[in-house]
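Reference record
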Amino acid sequence: MRPSRGFSLIEVIVSIFIMSVMLILFQAVTRSSVLVRTSKNQGVALAIARTEIESLRAGGYAALPASTTFYDSLVSTLSSSATTTLSISSFNAKTKQVVVGVVWKDSGATASSTVSLATLITQTGGLP
């Protein structure tokens, strides 16, 4: 008998199985890293919006500015194109609605992401 030259069918099947498992694990790690980055950015945007809302609440009704953009040091951690907006509108005679928005685009993403928080601020504590 001559020694065989090559691989047996079992060796080929086992190697294909091992490579398939490695490819699936690599894909899972890649996708999870994208999800972790997206989740982190959403958390940062939520912190920015929440901080601005709390600042406006602390200032009170009389100190509400006109609709504009605002600055927060955390915005630069999202992306260079991240923007913030502050929209103030009249809800009724003694109440204003405040909407704070943060918009950014993750690297490699095709669409922008947005976090928006809204609250009501009255002239005298509590809703009418």
The beta strands are 83-92, 95-104, 113-122. The mean pLDDT is 88. The chain has one domain: 9-122. Residues 9-122 form one domain.
